[in-house]
Amino acid sequence: MEILFENRTSSQVPVSIILLDWSVRHSYHILDYLRDQTVARDKYEVIWIEYYAQKALGIEKKIKDSIANGRPAPLNIWVMMEMPRNIYYHKHLMYNIGIIISSGRIITFCDSDAVVKPTFIESIIDSFEREEDIVLHMDEVRNVDKRLYPFSYPSIERIEGKGCINMIGGKPMGFVDKSDPLHIRNYGACMSALRKDIIAIGGADEHIDYLGNICGPYDMTFRLRNYGKKEVWHKGEWLYHIWHPGQYGAGNYKGPHDGRDMSKVALNALISEWIEPLAENPAIRFLRLGKKGNRDGLLSIAIPEQEILEGWRLDIIKKRLFALANFRHYPFTYIKIFPIFLKTFLTQLLSLFEFHIVNNSIFTAGRTLIGKSNETKENRFILIRFLILILKIIRRIYWRIRFIYRYNKAIIENCWHLFYNRLIPDGTRELALFGISDIVKIVLILARQTGIKIVGIYDNVDGLTFEGHKVAHYTNLKDYKDKILISTSINTEERMGRLKRLGIKEENILLP
User: Fold this and answer.
1) Before 150, cis peptide (omega within 30)?
2) Which fold has domain 428-512?
3) 2-316, what's its fold?
4) pLDDT tens track for 60-110
5) Which residue, among 273, 232, 270, 236, has the nearest Cα to 134 in the 3D structure?
6) Which end of the chain is more exposed for a tag (fewer CB within 10 A), N or C?
7) H helix runs in 169-294, sequence order
8) Is the pTM higher than 0.70?
9) Rounded to whole angstroms, how far apart are CA atoms 357 and 393?
């Protein structure tokens, strides 16, 4: 590990901004936006952490230009971790390096290719001055217009204009559509919390399931909530993101997630009320226990042992965790599961088309066009509006189809992983199901394939029959001692709570 650049004006500042890179950033424009803030430059520090042994020429140029022009440096600390290229990137390890190095009372983990407004730092400081016991999030506005790439410093108005996909009434969609905040809001964009609180929960969890693209600071958010902190979303400050190649982690390894790119481990932490991480960084543990040590000493023990790093090699984690790849070894099981996937996909697709055709009033617009007078200009204007409407709907349907496909594919992956990488290695012989959904159909097929007995299907009502099984009330599980799978992706937190109130041990409750 090497400190490439350091320029600190004081031993402690109100805010430390931690930015990550694993030799993938296309632009370093955020450093310019962070330099031009409404608060004094000595009130916050900017820390840039590079995972591999690559010195970004773009950052080096910005530092040299700042010195030559007599301006403050765009960052305060530049760290190069020098990890081997065959070891996959782990954002949570980078978070912990940032925590160790930081001197801020507040730590902010921020998307390192975003645009921020001049009031960004001021909004963070003001939020914690009003209320300390919080974990603060800022949502992110996204624009997918490829004409803005390469980055050319567009105005905020331009970013909010053509190509913007998640703004309604001047606010990010997550503030308007509150039906599913866990997925509609961007939990990975920007998170802030007091440094002492982050250390108290053991920092970022370095569990192997957070390796690669499925991870984020929300792991700490959920555990801070369990620690008693209040989750707050800033209502007037957010980030902006512009399209660039690979922006959604295309081609990156993804650990277990819920089908919508929310980590299953993080969700388990939220539901199960964990506070400490599953895999705690030894340097963060040192700080959590109140021991004193200098920065170099802490950094020397922060990188995991070689045997742990060997498990982070991409060729190994794909074999151990990427469950769907094993389908090629079980073609008959795949053939049985595929019709369920196809039926669910087509049903959701049909509902999607019905929604857009009816609710967006295509037919109404068409009737209006036909019913109007024969005046050429008026008809032409209506026709243009009609065509624009159709194009917008087609675009929305396309993105929704992609989501439906990825969601259903992930459900199959998760079920496959559950059986072949957990239940079978653990020697599980029986399994009870709590919930009725298409997940049950997949589980029943995999249970027959693996010889695991399904003892029953349970739900909030009884007397029904589903897939040839009588559905019993979930309270009948009170004395059940083996594994229980919550076999639906809806209201999993509530179902987990019901089972725990029945006295079911947490380790016996599985999520889909």
Assistant:
1) yes
2) Rossmann fold (3.40.50)
3) Spore Coat Polysaccharide Biosynthesis Protein SpsA; Chain A (3.90.550)
4) 999 999 999 999 999 999 999 999 999 999 999 999 999 999 999 999 999
5) 232
6) N
7) 173-176, 181-184, 195-200, 218-226, 264-272, 282-288
8) yes
9) 9
